[in-house]
Fold this protein.
Amino acid sequence: MKKPSKVYTIFRLEVPIIGQTLPNAQLDATGLSDLISVDVIAFKTKIGLLGIGPSLIIPTASSEFLGAGKWSPGLAGVIMNKGFGMTLGLFGQQYVSVGGNSKRPDQNYMLFQPIVTKILDHGYFLNFL
């Protein structure tokens, strides 16, 4: 029997819905923020699952107060391993704006997100992202 592939793809599409209430009522807004698309190719290695791939922020916010107004491509990376009866990992993303509303400030930032997953009995799990 052929062994399963040790290459994985992790695709993630984030569709953030944001509601904000601020002391300055003119900045209050609720609606869709910018879409975020990530496509990581990951490989099983001795130290766990390692992956890297492209990501893109698409300016789709329904209000100027809920998004950056800039097209921002970037890179995403992930590292995950099993330990302490859980799957532990870190998901990172780097973005730099390349176009969009010229009146909005340019973007250049990095995000890190911890990953903690605990598998329970009967197919249930707890996942903290």
